[in-house]
Design brief:
alpha/beta, eight-stranded mixed beta sheet, globular
Length: about 325
């Protein structure tokens, strides 16, 4: 199998680099200065076992790659706000022997949130979910670090509509050889909804900074409680905290001093967007559909989006100010 990594940022580049190091064939899809750096100098990937430069094929889109192969696996790792453009571009790509990628090839959604699977299922016949536990850092073109050990990350895999099959088991075997935990599960979206709750704090970190603070933990707890309430109201199951701890404790240990999650990194790179609409915004959507108030998540969504649109530096807001906005919104709800 050949892996086409659509979005070679922190997650995509780490997976692509590790797969290549284990002997699998991988292609990186990137844009702008990052694509230029990858082509010129290779992917500089630092993991727990050191820094290595991987010189992999790099394209900006399907036209540069040419006709796809029947054994290709598409791994979607762009942020959800960029998913539609990527799905449309790659879905229409022709596959050798006839048909398009959307008709014939497996697509794995390795992203935060739960929206990309829904977007993909509108276009692709074979869609898989990936619940990503893979702390990684991407702040400058061509350079990515993922320092967890003994495993680089844990990637739960399964069919987006539920169940498993032979192909996803083969992908899991390749990922395990590349240094990841890759459990194949019947209910991958249950794991992704659990991960969604944890990602509700991305907006807090992006706007107030990554340093731990009791006030940040308290605001996150309020956001998570709203998330749990809307999932309960919607009848959506999610993996328990005990299940998640059993799956990852002692397996993906991150060294101290690593700063900044995905939304914080997006602001630091000045991308102009964050995925808050598909994290905190997912909670807001479910709350409105099922009559549950979600004032904290709505404030977090709005604050993160303002930071992105206006190009504000990550961490420029005090947790006291953010909490005050949440309190005001809660009082109005």
């Amino acid at each position: 199998m050949r892996y086409i990594i659509i979005g070679a940022g922190a997650i995509g580049a780490t997976i692509g680099g590790r797969l290549a190091a284990s002997g699998r064939e991988a292609v990186l899809v990137a844009r702008g200065a990052h694509a230029e750096a990858l082509r010129a100098d290779g992917l500089r990937l630092t993991t727990a076992d050191g820094t290595h430069v991987h010189r992999l094929p790099v394209v900006t889109g399907p036209a540069e790659l040419g006709e796809l192969r029947p054994d290709d696996v598409l791994l979607l790792t762009v942020k959800t706000q960029d998913a539609i453009a990527a799905l449309d571009a790659w879905g229409d790509a022709e596959v050798a022997g006839g048909g398009t990628a959307a008709q014939r090839l497996p697509l794995l959604c390795a992203q935060n949130g739960v929206e990309s699977e829904r977007l993909a299922l509108r276009r692709f016949a074979r869609v898989y979910g990936v619940c990503v536990w893979l702390p990684a850092t991407f702040l400058e073109p061509g350079t990515v670090s993922a320092l967890c050990a003994p495993l680089t990350g844990i990637l739960h895999l399964g069919k987006a509509a539920g169940g498993t099959d032979r192909r996803i088991a083969e992908v899991a075997a390749d990922l395990e050889k590349a240094g990841f935990g890759a459990p194949v599960v019947e209910d991958v979206m249950r794991w992704k909804y659990a991960k969604l709750l944890g990602n509700l704090g991305n907006a807090i970190q992006a706007t107030t900074g990554p340093d731990p603070d009791p006030a940040k933990a308290a605001l996150l707890l309020r956001a998570v409680r709203e998330g749990e309430a809307v999932l309960g109201a919607a009848g959506i199951p999610y993996a328990s905290a005990a299940e998640q701890s059993a799956a990852r404790d002692g397996k993906v240990v991150q060294p101290e001093g690593v700063r900044g999650g995905s939304s914080w990194q997006s602001l630091a790179r000045g991308t102009g967007s964050v995925e808050a609409d598909y994290l905190n915004g997912e909670v807001c959507l479910l709350g409105r559909l099922h009559g549950v108030a979600t004032p904290v998540n709505d404030v977090l969504r709005q604050a993160a989006n303002i930071f992105a649109r206006e190009g504000l530096p990550p961490g420029a807001m005090s947790i006291a100010d953010l909490t005050a906005l949440a309190d005001e919104a809660a009082a109005r709800s």
